[in-house]
Structure formats: structure tokens, C-alpha cells
Amino acid sequence: MELFTIYCFTMKSLFFTLALLSAMVLNAQKVQTVSFWVGGVCDMCEQRIENALDVKGVKVADYSLENHKVTITYNTKKLNEAKLHELINKVGHDTSASKATDEAYDKVHGCCKYRDPEVQKAHQHGEGDHHDHDDDDHDDH
Ligand SMILES: [Cu+2]
């Protein structure tokens, strides 16, 4: 009799725990997508920015060099927008909301000095002539 009571109690708490867990899982899936400006000039910047966003709570992070915008799909239970800006600032990149510290900016590679107008210009020249992307004309692999 006593054993049965203990058994009932154990089962009850087990079900309660399961219910609580599934509620947590459902809650954890609240996602939101945001898009904002981030300073950057080359593929290395893109890699650096996307790597910085490779954290728990970020589902998708994509930086576009064409319009200098990052698009992030993230879990609102784990992160907020300010935190996303902070993560990017930490690796040396400015965002529309906050700037990277000079210390962090100094660490980015020389060709990535996106604040420098000269560097910005240099990268703009490279755009437009994509010689190696005409796959239709090349059958040799
Ligand atoms: Cu770069």
C-alpha cells in the first residue's frame, strides 16, 4: 500500500516534470529576425561577423557585403537585439546601434579597416568585375 503511494507520487512528479520540460521547449522556440547595418568590406569581415554570431540562441546569421547588412534569426528567450550588436562590436565591427571599441577595431586585419575611406574605395573597385564566375563558358572542370 505504502509502496503504491510512493509509486503514484513518483509518476505524478515525472509527468509534472515532463509537462514543464515540454513547456520550456515550446517557449524556447520563440524566434525573431532582425536586420541592421554593420561596417565591413571583404569576405574576411563577413566570416568574422558571422562567426561572432555563432552562439547559442542564434539560428541563422548572414552578412551581405552588397548592402552591408546582417540578417539574424534568433531566439528571443536567449538573446536580445542589444546583445547581438554587442557580439558584433566585440570582434571589431561597428553596427547601426553601437560602435566597436578602438581596441577591438585595431585587431581586425589590415584589409578589413572598414572605417578607413581608402580601404572602402579599394574594395569598391573590385566589385563588378567577376571574371571567374562565367560557369556556362567553361566545360573543363
Ligand atoms: Cu575584411
Structure description:
The chain has 141 residues and is an alpha+beta fold. It has a domain at 32-127: 2-Layer Sandwich (Alpha-Beta Plaits), CATH 3.30.70. Helices cover 44% and strands 15% of the residues. Strands 1-3-2 form a 3-stranded antiparallel sheet. The model is unreliable at 128-138 (pLDDT under 50). Bound molecules: copper (II) ion. Copper (II) ion binds at residues 41-42, 44-45, 111-112.
Please tally the β strands and state the result.
3
The percent range for strand residues is 5-15%
Task: State the share of residues found in helices, binned by percent.
Answer: 40-55%
CATH class assignment of the domain at 32-127: Alpha Beta
Low-confidence stretches: 128-138
Quick one: overall form?
Answer: rod-shaped
CATH fold description of the domain at 32-127: Alpha-Beta Plaits
Number of helices: 5
Specify Rg, calculated over alpha carbons: 24 Å
Compute the average pLDDT.
87
What is the succession of H and E elements? HEHEEHHH
Write the layout of secondary structure elements.
Layout: H1 2-28, E1 31-37, H2 43-52, E2 58-64, E3 69-75, H3 81-90, H4 102-106, H5 117-126
Antiparallel strand pairs: 1-3, 2-3
The chain binds copper (II) ion.
Copper (II) ion binds at residues 41-42, 44-45, 111-112.
Question: Brief overview, please?
Answer:
The chain is of the alpha+beta class and 141 residues long. The protein contains 5 helices and 3 strands. It is rod-shaped and about 85 Å long.
